[in-house]
Amino acid sequence: MNSIQSCQQARSGTPMMQIIIGLVLLSFFSIIPGIPGKALAANIAGESRTYMQYRETAAGDKLLPLYEYLDFTVQDLGKESISVHFGGWLGYDLSNNSFGGNADKDRSVQYGYVSYRAKEDNTVVNLGRVMVFEGVASERLDGIYARTDIKGGFGVSVYGGASTILTEPNDNTIYGGRLSHQSAGLYTLGISYLKQERNGSSFREEEGIDLWLQPVNKVAITGSSSYNKKTTGWMEHAYYLMLGPFDKLRFNTEASWINYADYFAGTTTNVFDMTPGGPIDPREKVNILGEEIFYSIDTNWALSVDYKKYGYDIAGNANYYGAKATYVLPKSYNAGLSIHKMDGDTNRLKYDEYRIYASKKIDKIDVTVDFLDVKYKEPINTVTNAYSVTLAAGYELTEKLKLGADLEYSKNPEFDKEVRAFLKINYRFDAELGKRKGV
Amino acid sequence: MNNKKKVLTFLLLLPVFVLALHLSTGTAGTALKHPMEVEAPVMCSQCHTDWRASMDHSAEFGGLRHKFSARQNKQTCGLCHVESFCADCHGVNEGLKPSDKYKDAPERALPHRGDYLNQHKIDGRINPASCMKCHGRQNNERCRVCHK
């Protein structure tokens, strides 16, 4: 199976997904008042977000997709420790072109699981379609995830199930775990493991170390290293040193190293199938060193300067640096101005980037203006200046219901002029359901 | 996943977790909600001096560094964020780009603002690993329209 075929998403129709949806719906309807014998108390809170977008493709096709994003959490389900979580979206095509003629692209259950959470030890057990972020794992799977703190400062997490990102959900297993140890206020150190199999053979096998260390007050290091056991090489080391805050100053330093051959193994798209001597060489290794200095002038104004150096074994070097000023008046006004320069060894990696934005809230109305401009040293499709201007406005009809509209105009190497329009309706809801009599 | 693998997976996972529960300490877990409302920009270091101070929501925290906190201490993220906050970017098979959904929140460090159709060719050369995190094994239908 080639990489393109293999990257299709598992959809709502898989057996595991049917089980998940069943669990979520069963939990949801079991608390609806009026259903005989269903007297469980529960709180439900969530949000419905309805979006309609208008845009054109480079070929001139007009796209008009309509999306409904729904998420909700049912808590205190009978016992405080049980909850249900659901998030997903449906898309409806108003122009017959929005989803590329592929009806499978018009829906997704992002997550849907029943969760048990104990009051002690951070013990959590999630069952269903779960998102797992543990050490080397940043996955979504149909299965089980569990974690707890244990004696002596240790913590353990395990997960297993079917990955949702491959076409073979009936023969696609992913599992792993993380063991951590922490000394409160000094360090957290974790080791993690992940294995993914498909069609009976190993697809990915990764091991990792993650660290948070605070040797003295105002000095902290965080980061991780990951090792590809299949290709027997280190994939990435990425660490940050954070100093401060010292009065109004903070310093963040980044040091990363990536080995392409090991990092890009186990991909499901041919975008990352690199060839030696091609635009991106699989033998490439990159070092990234970065520094950000942040200065709070007062409670509203802040300044920051940042610098990032990319050092490649094969492709040469590039430097990205600039500055940003922000002004924030909480819940009222928000503005920012930034200027950055990319200076690489090739003309393609030489450009200047400018951004200015402002957002103001007046009573029930909010208005946002955002301008982003990129000036290339070397013209791309005869264009050296690419920019976009966005106007956004919102109106709170009620505390829970908000209407919004955006308009974006841009000129770039792909479009002489591009106009995008966006309408949205956000509705937040919460209710106490199935309350017992006398409670 | 066939039945044999399901059984094997659960056999592998359950004893580990049951043993862990047996060794649990009985200490109070992380609260479900932050005890007070926090205003943006969120600077945890204004009140905390321990590991929570490293979760200051600066621009580079929103960009790359938040992954380390999430992979070590996701329950802390849950103090303020519901799961859909993560899913807005990491939900896989996204219908809309996060930056399309949040044009009215320009302060948020979302990826791909402005003209990204052209810019991705440049960013992809600078650091393709930054693309891989979100699009390497998932959420790459749009990539395949051109990268056939």
Structure characterization notes:
The complex is a heterodimer of chains A (439) and B (148). Helix content of chain A is 5%, strand content 64%. Chain A has helices spanning 3-6, 15-29, 260-263; strands at 42-56, 62-63, 65-75, 82-93, 107-117, 124-134, 137-149, 154-163, 172-183, 187-198, 201-216, 219-228, 233-246, 249-259, 285-296, 301-312, 317-329, 333-344, 350-362, 365-380, 383-396, 401-411, 418-433. By secondary structure, chain B is mainly alpha-helical. Chain B starts with a helix and ends with a helix. The mean pLDDT of chain B is 79. Chains A and B meet through strand 1, strand 3, strand 4, strand 5 and strand 6 of A and helix 1, helix 2, helix 3, helix 5 and helix 6 of B.
SSE layout and pairings?
The complex is a heterodimer of chains A (439) and B (148).
Chain A: H1 3-6, H2 15-29, E1 42-56, E2 62-63, E3 65-75, E4 82-93, E5 107-117, E6 124-134, E7 137-149, E8 154-163, E9 172-183, E10 187-198, E11 201-216, E12 219-228, E13 233-246, E14 249-259, H3 260-263, E15 285-296, E16 301-312, E17 317-329, E18 333-344, E19 350-362, E20 365-380, E21 383-396, E22 401-411, E23 418-433
Antiparallel strand pairs in A: 1-2, 1-3, 1-23, 3-4, 4-5, 5-6, 6-7, 7-8, 8-9, 9-10, 10-11, 11-12, 12-13, 13-14, 14-15, 15-16, 16-17, 17-18, 18-19, 19-20, 20-21, 21-22, 22-23
Chain B: H1 3-22, H2 59-77, H3 83-90, H4 98-101, H5 116-126, H6 128-135, H7 141-146
Structural class of chain B: mainly alpha
Number of helices of chain B: 7
Shape of chain A: globular
| Greatest interface by residues involved | A-B, 152 and 91 residues
Mean pLDDT of chain B: 79
Largest sheet of chain A: 22 strands, antiparallel, barrel
> Care to count the β-strands of chain A?
23
Helix content of chain A: under 10%
Q: Determine the oligomeric state from the structure.
A: heterodimer
Q: What is the H-and-E element order of chain B?
A: HHHHHHH
Question: Which residues of chain A form runs of ≥5 with pLDDT under 50?
Answer: 1-13, 31-38
